[in-house]
Amino acid sequence: MAVLDPNEIFYTAFEPKQKNRFILYVDGIPSYQIKGMGAVSLTQGTVQLNHINVARYVKGKTLWNTIQMTLFDPITPSGAQACMEWVRLHHESVTGRDGYSDFYKKDLTMNVLGPVGDIVSEWIIKGAMITDANFGDYSWDDESAAVELQITVQPDYCILNF
Length: 162
Description:
This protein has helices at about 5-10, 80-90, 100-105; strands at about 20-25, 35, 40-50, 55-65, 65-70, 105-115, 120-135, 150-155, 155-160. With about 160 residues, the chain is mainly β. The chain has one domain (about 20-160): Pnp Oxidase, Chain A (Roll). A hairpin with a 5-residue loop joins strand 6 (about 105-115) and strand 7 (about 120-135). The chain is extended, with a radius of gyration of 22 Å. The chain starts with 5 loop residues before the first helix and ends with a strand. The relative contact order is 0.21.
């Protein structure tokens, strides 16, 4: 017969993290312009080891997946201009020059906040570079929506501090 643990069967109070309680720090982009951010995720590769008629697997390369961010585009300071400055560190359209990775790769910090504004979790996203940028849609038919920017970044790796 199983022994019941009182800690498992009685109510335990907890406070879940909420999606709208975060601050993302990106050098060159004001934090209040960042509306949303996709989850940090990774993919673990596998290596197949064949032996006679059996296959076994060990861990292969770890690949950190891209992260999508949504930003507001205020008139001033311009969100599009802030994003384009980061893009220009990758590639300058006028001259055709590409930049050194030391210039265009940035470290981002996402702080997850508790209900009173305390930092309850921190992700450090290392070596992020822009892989895709969308500077928003415009329409004569929609006067109620603000223009939003979409950028996708590829990190080298991520660290969950706490």
